[in-house]
Design a protein that fits this description.
Low-confidence stretches: none
Shape: elongated
Structural class: alpha/beta
CATH superfamily of the largest domain: Spore Coat Polysaccharide Biosynthesis Protein SpsA, Chain A
Strand order of the largest sheet: 12-15-18-21-24-27-30-33-36-39-41-42
Oligomer: single chain
Distance between the termini: 61 Å
Strand content: 25-35%
Number of helices: 7
Helix content: 10-25%
CATH architecture of the largest domain: Alpha-Beta Complex
CATH topology of the largest domain: Spore Coat Polysaccharide Biosynthesis Protein SpsA, Chain A
Length: 465
Amino acid sequence: MSNLHYPDLQVCVLAAGKGKRMRSNLPKVLHKVLGRAMIDHVLHTVEALRPKAIAMVTGHASEMVRAHVGQPVNLDWVIQDKQLGTGHAVKQCEKVIRDVRDVLIVCGDTPLLSVETLARLVDEHRAANTDVTVLTAKPENPFGYGRIVRDGNGNVTSIVEQKDATDEQRLIGEVSSGIYCVRHEVLFDLLHAIGNSNAQEEYYLPDIVPLALHAGQSVAAIAMNDSDEMVGVNDRVDLAHVEGLMQKRIIEEWQRRGVTIEKPDTVRIEAGVKIGIDTVIQAGCYLIGTTHVGDECRVGPNAVLVNAWLDDRVNVFAFSHIHGASVGSDAIIGPYARLRPEAQLDEEVHIGNFVEIKKSVIGRGSKVNHLSYIGDTVMGSACNVGAGTITCNYDGANKFVTEIGNNVFIGSDTQLVAPVKVADDATIGAGSTITRNVAAGGLTLSERNAQKYAAGWKRPQKDRN
C-alpha cells in the first residue's frame, strides 16, 4: 500500500506509560520485538499512512523515548506529566493537533498493527461520515480488554474496561483495540467532558463513545480481520508472545518471497533483515539486526549473522558467526568460522573451520582454511594462508597493520608480527616468525630467531597433467 497518503489526518501515538509489569528501568515502548523497539514498529506503520503529522505522547522516562526516536520532521512531542488515563493523554495533544479532518489514535505497545488495517479504519470511517469509529476484534481470550457493549439493534452504546465490567459484560467477546479514528472537530469537546468516576479514577478514552451518542453524534465499530494485530504488551510474557506472532509472520512472508526456511520454528529472523530469492536458511539460524543475505545463499545450520552483509551465492557452513562483516559473492565460510566487525571479504574467498577474521580485508580468491587468526590485515587476491597462522597485531598498547600482497603463500604455524609487509608472490615457510618485511617472490623462513631470504627460489607447481 505504498500509494497511501492522508494529508488531512493526524496520528496520536500513546507512549506515556511506565509499564510497571515489565519490571524494568526501560520504558515499556523501548523494549524490543525482533530487534526493534515496540515504538519503532508502531511509528514505521503509521508513517506509511503519510499523515500530516504525528503527535507522540510520552510521560515516564520521556527523555529516553525522545532520545531513541530522534526528531522526525513531522513529529510533535507531547508530555503527559501525570499518567491519568488514555483520555487524559490524548487531551494533552490539543495544542499540536490542528487543521486536519480526523485524528487517528493508536497505542505505542501494539507492534503487530498493520498499515492495511489502519488505512481500512480511516477509509471506512470517512466513507460512513462517522464522528467516532473504534477498531474492534474478537480474540479467543478477551480478558483484559474493554468490552464493546451494543444495544438490541447492534449499535455501539459503550466500551467498558475489564476492571469496571459486570460479570455479564465480561462474557462479551468483542473488544476494543484501543485504536480510534475521530473527527477532529468533536474530539476535544468529548475529551473535556470525560469524567474519572471509575475504579482507577482515570480519564478513559473509551468514555468518548457514550458521550458522543448522548450528544447525537455517530459512532461506529469496525472489526479487524486479524485479532493478533491488537495484542498489546504489558509484561515480558506478553513480549515473548508478541515476538512469536511477529516471527511467524516474518518467516511466512520470506517464504512467500522465495526463501527456503528449514524448521522455521527453530529460526530467528529479525524485522530489519533482508533475504534474496532461492536462499536456504537452515535449522537453528539467527539472522539479527540489519543483516542482508543475497540471492542463492545457504546459511546454517546454527549459524549466527548479526548486522552482516552477504552477497549472492555465499555458503555459510554450520555454527559460523558473522558479526558486522561483509562477504563477497561465491565465498565459503566455515564451519565454525568467526568474522568480526569490519572484516571485508571479496569474491570467492574461503574461510574455514576455527578461523577468526577481524578488521581485515581479504582479497578475491584468497583462502584461510584452518585454525588461524587474521586481524588488522590487508590481504591481496589469490593468497593461501596455512593452518595455525596468526597476525600478531597488538603489543599490549597499540594495534598495527599487516599488509599481504597478491598470490602470497604462508606456511602453517606462521606468526606475522605487525607492522610488517609481505610483497606479491612471496612464500613463507611453515613455522616462521616474521618480524621484518618480506620481499617479493622467493622463499622466506625463520630458524629460531634468524630470518632468511632465498633469492630466486621457485614455488613448487601443481602437476596439471
